[in-house]
Amino acid sequence: MKKYVWPSVKLTLVFIVICSVLYPLLIALIAKAAPGGGKGETVSVNGKVVGYANIGQKFTDDKYFWSRPSAVDYNAAGSAGSNKGPTNPDYLKLVQDRIDSFLVHNPGVKKEEIPAELVTASGSGLDPDLSPAGAKVQAKRIAAVRKLNEAAIISLIDKQAEKPLLGMFGPAKVNVLKLNIELDKLK
Q1: How far apart are CA 54 and CA 40, in angstroms?
Q2: Spatial CB neighbours of 13, under 8 Å, sequence gap ≥ 6
Q3: Alpha helices for 18-149 (secondary structure H)
Q4: Phi (first) and psi of residue 42, to 5 degrees
Q5: Are 134 and 117 in contact (CB under 8 A)?
Q6: pTM for this structure?
Q7: DSSP β-bridge partners for residue 49
Q8: DSSP 8-state assignment for residue 22
């Protein structure tokens, strides 16, 4: 038994150094090379930070694109989903309330035209993106409120849309915060 104890202790110490020192240092170095230097990619307007590019934010004013609903009210400290299944009556009522609210604010849109992402929260509750379809279904409301041409709003969405990685990995998406910032620049 003694011949196995010392090698086990040495192996444990080696793995402690690898897992507790070297691996965290490697991840920290990779994070420093990422946009934002590992602190998140901030979005600024006129030198003032208005949010983070990778964290969803709440927009409820009719003149802005609405974000995907959040189960944690966009609190980045408490990322979570609702964990309620599609047969849960509380969840179904919440989704129906979101549909009803969306239809009130977007007259002319039919229930079946509303993308699911606009009435269901993401798994993290902090999703910053919408599909281009999720943004375009809101264009008529925004054009009416801002007294802009709807085609200009659609064009803005198309310009802001990010294509899938390498043209095949993931869906096309639009960052809602960045889209709303560009929307404010339209005259």
Answers
A1: 7
A2: none
A3: 23-33, 89-105, 132-136, 139-146
A4: -85, 150
A5: yes
A6: 0.79
A7: 44
A8: I
Separation in Å, CA 98 to CA 5, 104, 111, 165, 175: 62, 10, 11, 31, 21
pLDDT in tens, the chain (187 residues): 778 898 899 999 999 999 999 999 999 999 888 877 777 788 888 888 888 888 888 898 999 999 999 888 888 777 777 788 889 999 999 999 999 999 999 998 999 999 999 999 888 878 899 999 999 999 999 999 999 999 999 999 999 999 998 888 989 999 999 999 999 988 7
For the chain, the structural domain boundaries read 1-33, 41-185
Cβ atoms of 125 and 80 closer than 8 Å = yes
Q: If we measure between CA atoms, which residue out of 150, 169, 173 comes closest to residue 161?
A: 173
CA distance 18 to 7: 16
137-141 contact pairs (CB < 8 A, 24+): 137/106, 137/109, 137/113, 138/65, 138/66, 138/106, 140/106, 140/108, 140/109, 141/62, 141/105, 141/106, 141/107
Distance CA 156, CA 187 (A): 12
Which amino acid is present at 182? E
> For residue 52, how many other CB atoms are within 10 A of its CB?
18
